[in-house]
Amino acid sequence: MDYKILNTIKTPKDLKHLSHAELAQLATEIRYRLIEAVSETGGHLAPSLGVVELTLALHRSLNSPKDKIIWDVGHQSYAHKILTGRNETFSTLRQYGGLAGFPKKSESEHDFLDSGHASNSISFALGMAEARDKKGGEEHVVVVIGDGSLTGGMAYEALNQAGHLETRLIVILNDNEMSISPNVGAMAGYLAKVRLDPVHTKLRKEIEQRIKKLPAIGELVYDIGMHIKESVKALLVPGMLFEELGFTYIGPIDGHDIKELERNLALAKQVEGPVLIHAVTKKGLGYTPAVERPEKWHGIAPFVKKTGEPRSTSDIPTYTGVFGDTLVDLGNKNEKIVGITAAMASGTGLNKFAKAHPDRFYDVGIAEQHAVTFAAGLAMEGFQPVAAIYSTFLQRSLDQIIEDVSLQKLPVVFAVDRAGIVGEDGPTHHGAFDMSYLRSIPGLTIMAPKDEDELRHMLFTALEMKKAVAIRYPRDRGFGVELSKDYQIIPEGRGEILAEGSDVCLLAVGRMVRYSVDAATTLKERGISASVVNMRFVKPLDAKMIAWAAENHKLVVTVEENSLVGGFGSGVLEAMAELGLTAPVHRLGLPDRFISHGSMKRLLAEVGLDANGIAYSINRKLDELGGKKHPGVVVKRTTGKRTSVFKKF
Ligand SMILES: Cc1ncc(C[n+]2csc(CCOP(=O)(O)OP(=O)(O)O)c2C)c(N)n1
């Protein structure tokens, strides 16, 4: 593709003089650019394809960065990145040292927060707009929030306050009828009703016609026409729900019609109070596979442009997949089991349970707090809810886990997916803290399986225990171990010794167990004899095992994929203090800083949590204890803007 117009856009100001015909051409070029880059890097393609015209209209109508655009989640901000000086580096998206997959303050003056979690944008923007008014500023503060993100409670808390404060603020509701899966809930139903308004029915027909013009699946030809009739006018509809909340409601309008968007943004800018523009868009527009399967293309791994097929495949199941299959199986035998997701049915593997047991499956929307208390309510009445929530998003539900589940002694099982380093999604998505924030809760059992087969037994055990249990596992394929047909109860608070040695004892949890076993093999080659223990439980800890480790080795090493602050290693130290054990302890885990984005492998190496890094640290620590100079080498590597230190053993 010859990026004739795109190559001339260095800042949003360069958009202002373009004709609408040129803008239509530019929209096509941006879509090519998105597909070209994301096919190599993976990323949130469908959401970003859906807001190309909206992004163009925003940057033409506003004066960024003086005017501030806040993207909810930020996964749809790729066109914004391209138009704000990052086109040339766009192919480094999500790569180590490259551009982040979400807005990032350090990247551009046009990004106002490092976002990634949903439903907080209106709160941020409202605070910024209030600050503007207090300082006597004139700028506009604009939020772009999807209909999916509007299912999150925080969004309503912010709408509630905005309507009350009557602050000048523009909220663009990017309504594509999709969260990651089709959007759910009463608000989704309400928006559907608004869309079915007779004027809007016409609008829908036009969008459908436009999609029909798209070529056959997989071909990289776009709807270049983008010729939009003038017939769809913005409506000022009084008395709608948003109006009742104190917002001026404009819509629904065609979110792919730049002129129409600009006209309504001009209107909105004149309103002395909060305005909501309801823009209807098509997720994935411009790439047929993404339009046809927006859920799959919400976030996609690197793919072949022509066919949309993934670039790499593997027969080894993911932890997520094994969890999903196991829950279906256990659900077949136990009718009390209920599956709950907060808008991540496919991401958590619960889509399988949804299919097998639709009457026992709930997608509550992007509402992690509610998901947990809703689960508590079901548990109170005798059901056995399994709430599958990513580690990073479970952070939202801490109070509910403490007050509504644990204090009530209710048997809710938390399937904590994406625990540890997740890779390209970066700091907002790493599951770095769950052990720390869960470990302090009285009565909550926390497990981490050493491989995908152990996950099956842990899920079975958790449901048999009939109490609050969290099982945390990584965003990864398993190790390809055989999956046993039967289930075993794992005795609570008991670890297993996998190797016995005399110099050092590695107490490990989760996938770090395997890496510790590999590290022990390397250490053996250096004449260092290591024990390796799969601790299995982060809480309650196996006190006997800890005592054995401390009393029979020169050094105890804890290995976890969680923040070192308050995590598993901290727990071991606490236990040793309680037991009066004084052996030297070395803790390996995630450092006390936010970890950047990049491939999981690279990031694990950076923080010293691959087998090599573990062996290096242990060797060095033993040498320190023995007063010798360590023989490992330190290698510095620079990628893009990042320089990292890797330790080689
Ligand atoms: C608190 C939280 N929970 C879950 C997610 C995962 N997530 C990312 S985008 C998304 C769907 C957002 O839907 P919508 O706002 O409509 O945007 P669209 O992708 O349709 O453009 C979800 C559930 C998240 N980012 N934050």
Please report the total strand number as a whole number. Answer: 19
**Intertermini distance:** 46 Å
Shape: globular
Helix run count: 24
**Strand coverage percent:** 15-25%
**CATH architecture group name of the largest domain:** 3-Layer(aba) Sandwich
CATH superfamily of the largest domain: Thiamin diphosphate (ThDP)-binding fold, Pyr/PP domains
Domain module count:
3
CATH fold call of the largest domain: Rossmann fold
- Give the % helix: 25-40%
Bound heterogens, unique:
thiamine diphosphate
Strand order of the largest sheet: 7-6-8-9-11-10-15
Which structural class should the secondary elements be placed in?
alpha/beta
Low-confidence stretches: 215-239
Q: Mean of residue pLDDT?
A: 93
Instruction: State the major sheet.
Output: 7 strands, mixed
| Radius of gyration over all CA atoms, rounded | 26 Å
CATH uppermost class of the largest domain: Alpha Beta
What would you say this structure looks like, in words?
This protein is an alpha/beta fold. The chain has 3 domains: 57-74 and 102-197 and 237-285, 3-Layer(aba) Sandwich (Rossmann fold); 319-472, Thiamin diphosphate (ThDP)-binding fold, Pyr/PP domains (Rossmann fold, 3-Layer(aba) Sandwich); 496-644, Rossmann fold, CATH 3.40.50.920. It is built from 24 helices and 19 strands. Strand 2, helix 6 (153-165) and strand 3 (169-175) form a beta-alpha-beta unit. Helix 12 (319-333) runs parallel beside helix 14, helix 12 runs parallel beside helix 19 (452-465) and helix 15 (368-380) packs parallel to helix 17 (398-406). The chain is globular. 54% of the residues are buried. The structure holds thiamine diphosphate. Thiamine diphosphate binds next to loops.
